[in-house]
Amino acid sequence: MIDKELMTSCSEYPNPDLLIRTSGEQRISNFFLWQSAYTELYFPNVLWPDFGEAEYLKALTWYQQRQRRFGRRV
């Protein structure tokens, strides 16, 4: 019910699976807080202007190695 009332419910895109926060900052600053409940968070120590294809591939490789549980215990 809450999800339908959010201003982002008009988006055609699903909730994010991976959120990349550059510069090593380990916070999301209320960015899509509700939608990011099961999002994998990646914090590279690279500033945004320097975040290129190589860093993006590192993030994707890291994400592929994650075991996603969606709140379930293993």
TrEMBL record:
GO molecular function: transferase activity, transferring alkyl or aryl (other than methyl) groups
Keywords: Transferase
PROSITE patterns: UPP_SYNTHASE
Keyword Nucleus: no
Alphabetized InterPro entries for the sequence: UPP_synth-like, UPP_synth-like_CS, UPP_synth-like_sf
Entries under Pfam families matching the protein: Prenyltransf
Entry keyword annotation includes Transferase: yes
Gene Ontology CC annotations of this record: cytoplasm
Cofactor(s) this protein requires: Mg(2+)
Pathway assigned to this chain's UniProt record: Protein modification; protein glycosylation
Domain of life: Eukaryota
Assigned protein family: Belongs to the UPP synthase family.
General function of this protein: Catalyzes cis-prenyl chain elongation to produce the polyprenyl backbone of dolichol, a glycosyl carrier-lipid required for the biosynthesis of several classes of glycoprotein.
UniProt-recorded name of the protein: Alkyl transferase
Organism, scientific name: Brassica campestris (Field mustard)
Source species taxonomy: Eukaryota, Viridiplantae, Streptophyta, Embryophyta, Tracheophyta
